[in-house]
Amino acid sequence: MSKVIAVANQKGGVAKTTTVHSLGAALAERGNRVLLVDLDPQACLTYSLGLNPSDLGHSLHDVIVHGAGADSALVKVKDLHVLPSTIDLAGAEIYLLSKTGREYGLSRALDAIVHSYDVVLIDCPPSLGILTINGLTAAQEVLVPLQCETLSSRGVGQLLETIGDVRNYTNSGLQVAGVVATMFDGRTKLAQNTLATMRDTYGLEVLDPPIPKSVKVAEAPGMSRSVLEHAPRSAAAVAYRGLAETLEGRLR
Q: Count of CB atoms within 10 A of residue 218's CB?
């Protein structure tokens, strides 16, 4: 059975896209069939995989807005499959607002192909708009990348309220897989206190291992690689492999 995981946090700059790409690569290394869905009109995941959004035939915008089959937009990049994004997807926000069942656009699109994958990772945009709602409605679980600082922590409560709304109206079975600490510096009290807040205030599981801050992670997208390819022995690559192992135990 496929596991569909939305990776979401409305605060930008928390390594959400990096986590989708790196975790997807790590799961594929372990023999899983992995689909990455770029639900962000900024198309950062698409770009990080080495795809030029301007050169695509169909994209996720065509699937959601024009009813193209999801398989017509699929692109294979090494061991990963991706439903790519373009800036046109920003127009889908406006389009969907006027449509009945607007929350289910992505879910309907994935229905035809999800059975071909062990894991589907959805890179949600840094907002709580209709595209993110589509991602949460299509998912079974939510993974929350968290930079361990005050402003990032503050947004988690807002995200949990949105998840509660999604449970009430469009996806009653949606679960929170947990929090992933990104760009982590365990030497600081702020980092430790932020993770304690996730457990004590919000009751969220903090998944091990945390992902350490590394320039290798920042370099990788410019080379159209995940950090696992760019610096396979780096602490960040090792951590993402560990996170993949943690999640894989929940896939069966």
A: 14
CB 106 within 8 A of CB 138: yes
Rounded (to 5) percent helix, strand, coil in the chain = 50, 15, 35
pTM for this predicted structure: 0.95
Q: How many other C-beta atoms lie within 10 A of the C-beta of residue 91?
A: 13
Tell me how crowded residue 75 is: count the other CB atoms within 10 A of its CB: 18
The string of pLDDT tens digits covering residues 15-61 is 999 999 999 999 999 999 999 999 999 999 999 999 988 888 899 99
Order of all β-strands in the sheet with 75-77: 75-77, 80-83, 34-38, 119-123, 3-7, 141-147, 175-182
Side-chain-side CA neighbours of residue 116 (13 Å): 12
Contacts of 151 (CB under 8 A, 6+ apart): 11
Helix (H) or strand (E) holding 34: strand 34-38
C-alpha dihedral over 122, 64, 172, 14, to 10 degrees? 30
Fold of the domain built from segment(s) 3-247: Rossmann fold (3.40.50)
Q: Does the pLDDT of residue 250 top 80, yes or no?
A: no
